[in-house]
TrEMBL record:
Swiss-Prot/TrEMBL GO biological process terms: glycerol metabolic process; glycerophospholipid catabolic process
Pfam families: GDPD (PF03009)
InterPro entries named in the record: GDPD, GP_PDE_dom, PLC-like_Pdiesterase_TIM-brl
Provenance organism: Oryza sativa subsp. japonica
Family: Belongs to the glycerophosphoryl diester phosphodiesterase family.
Ranges of residues in domain GP-PDE: 59-375
Keyword set includes Chloroplast: no
Alphabetic keyword roster: Glycerol metabolism, Hydrolase
Protein name in the entry: glycerophosphodiester phosphodiesterase
EC nos: 3.1.4.46
Catalytic activity: a sn-glycero-3-phosphodiester + H2O = an alcohol + sn-glycerol 3-phosphate + H(+)
Gene Ontology MF terms in the entry: glycerophosphodiester phosphodiesterase activity
Length: 422
């Protein structure tokens, strides 16, 4: 009898676990100074690039009805979401979160804990404490619709043959055994502490890093966020184990795909930089919008210092941090650092346009289609006011024909937006 779906996938996808603990001495030996590698997607040459946040956007579980972010249909961090992002030519890359299971397999999942419900109780398990097989058993299962269809075909066949107790027939028993295994429902904790059902209009199963490389269009770049829990102190050996497991998969399956790493963990960024010199490493920062025990994470100035000290290739900042401290853009450029941003304000095209004017290299967004189309319009030729007043529908005209008065209004508006809760 065939293995259950999650078990079969776990067996096939965990081949790298055995060699994940092997040292990446060869990669470390080739480590050179920053600048030997090209910046992600030739950022300096392409102006502003757009990346899809967890694919086509994160799932705003618990968001109030009508919220713009609620427009995201696909389950985040899935093959379905990545594939749809790849279909948009203006999207250069997708950002996704990678953690490593207990048995050494890199998987795609954002939250530190995975929540499910059994009877009336809610259970939470740390993702990195799970074996791959258990992780894959959460949420929708692959090919479940095919199994259900086959099962009902068997039932119909039994009825046609007129068996009084169809479930006593061997092939019907087999069909019952093959019926879609009951997956564990996925729940999520909202920012206000509520635990709610985590569903998506267009659902898909959880996946591994290897699957993403194998099944997503190779033209789409990957921003691999190396995910670590803020509340845990990691020994060097723990960081090494996780980073080497990720690097093993990337080295084997990336081929010519554009890839770069990012992480909020400054030591993980430094170690990944030491382990290899092929893929750029960027430091993630909240840009001073939140405070941490580790001072390296508490400002844009500290983030730039970390990049220079550890010879990283750039930083990814919460957009409010950049808009509050625009001089950081100039300092990053003078230091030959790439600068990308993330955050809710990146779903407002006016805020993205201000960053375009400031020289920000890229934005990570949730409203992928809307913002990627807007950014594509930014580089179109400037249209004069008479053309705009003619009533002709010119796509992108609004982005390039700002007057000084309009730009002044935007510069006033952005700080006002920053003060709003997001």
């Amino acid at each position: 009898m065939a293995l259950p779906a999650a078990t079969a996938r776990a067996a096939a996808l965990c081949r790298i676990a055995a060699c994940a603990s092997a040292s990446s001495a060869a990669a470390a030996a080739t480590g050179g100074r920053r600048g030997a590698e090209k910046l992600p997607f030739s950022l300096a040459e392409r102006g502003m690039v757009v990346g899809g946040h967890r694919g086509m956007g994160m799932n705003a579980v618990g968001a109030p009805p009508g919220a713009r972010i609620e427009a995201v249909r696909e389950r985040e961090n899935t093959l379905l979401s990545f594939g749809r992002a790849a279909a948009h030519a203006a999207v250069a890359f997708v950002e996704f979160d990678v953690q490593v299971t207990k048995d050494g397999c890199p998987i795609i999942f954002h939250d530190d804990f995975i929540l499910t419900q059994e009877t009336d109780a809610v259970y939470a398990k740390r993702v990195t404490d799970l074996l791959l097989e258990e992780f894959l058993s959460y949420g929708p299962q692959k090919n479940s619709h095919e199994v259900i269809y086959s099962f009902f075909c068997w039932l119909l066949l039994c009825q046609v043959h007129g068996y009084e107790c169809i479930f006593e027939m061997p092939f019907c028993k087999l069909a019952l055994m093959l019926i879609v295994q009951i997956s564990k429902p996925l729940l999520r904790r909202t920012s206000d502490g509520r635990v709610v059902n985590w569903s998506a209009k267009d659902d898909d199963s959880l996946c591994t890093l290897q699957e993403v490389f194998e099944r997503v269009s190779p033209r789409l770049g990957f921003n691999i966020e190396l995910k670590f829990d803020d509340d845990i102190f990691y020994e060097r050996s723990q960081l090494d184990r996780a980073l080497q497991a990720v690097l093993q998969v990337v080295s084997q399956y990336a081929s010519n795909r554009p890839v770069f790493f990012s992480t909020f963990h400054p030591d993980a960024a430094r170690i990944m930089r030491e382990l290899q010199s092929l893929y750029p490493v960027l430091f993630l920062t909240e840009g001073g919008t939140a405070q941490h025990k580790d001072s390296r994470r508490n400002s844009l100035d500290e983030a730039i210092r970390v990049c220079l000290e550890y010879e990283l290739h750039g930083l990814v900042s919460e957009v409010r941090g950049v808009l509050k401290n625009p001089s950081a853009v100039l300092r990053a450029k003078e230091s030959n650092l790439a600068l990308l941003t993330y955050g809710q304000l990146n779903n407002v095209w006016e805020a993205v346009y201000i960053q375009y004017l400031m020289g920000v290299n890229g934005v990570i967004v949730d409203l992928v289609e809307e913002i990627s189309n807007a950014v594509a319009d930014f580089s179109k030729p400037v249209l004069n006011q008479s053309m705009l007043g003619s009533g002709v529908d010119l796509v992108g005209a609004k982005h390039q024909a700002f007057s000084q008065q309009q730009l002044g209004f935007l510069l006033w508006l952005i700080p006002e937006l920053i003060q709003q809760p997001h």
